[in-house]
Amino acid sequence: MNAPVVLVPGLGLGPESYAKTVEHLITPHHVVTLPGYGEPAGAREDLHPRALGVALADKIRERSVLVGHSASCQIVVETAVINPELVHALVLAAPTGDIRMSSWLDRAVRLLGSAVPESPRLIRVVTPQYARTTLSTIARAGEAARHHDLAAVITRVKAPVVIVRCKHDLLSPADWVQKLAELSHGEARTLDTGSHMPVLTNGPEMAALIERAAAVPPTT
Which domain holds residue 170? Predict the structure, then answer.
């Protein structure tokens, strides 16, 4: 029997961001939103990935496959470190968290470069999600994630890790994904199409990778 799946939206996004992935999932699954990642945050809420990793753990009821997208990969990795008993496997889609390219200017250039190959229709999909999370919350959560060193944290993960990116993604480049795979003793995959939104643009491929991770025998 497969482990259940928990999906966490990327920065500013909501459950809709996984629409094209979950329609191909057979394994039981649900999307968990968090402040900055589908929900607006209170003025005093801690939006650092470690704090949100604790909040995510509180919402998981059984050992599961945790799926992160973009900045939420930092959150699910923190959950795997803090509460390893809750994590059957990790699937990281287009992970960010490389402090070597954490300046806002660098991120803006890479974001624009990654957006060019995406379909303009995605703008209509993501804009309402950003509005619901609120721009002020997104800015705060983005600043907190910008200083989080995913490479340092992922070395402490004990569960199987699958890391996937798309060919045209400049925010999650191939060398970064390969580095994370080596540090976690995991698997790196690059999809032939798409950019920074594989959970929307490459739904069947993402679902297949998640299903495979859910079927992996648990580590002892």
Answer: 5-215
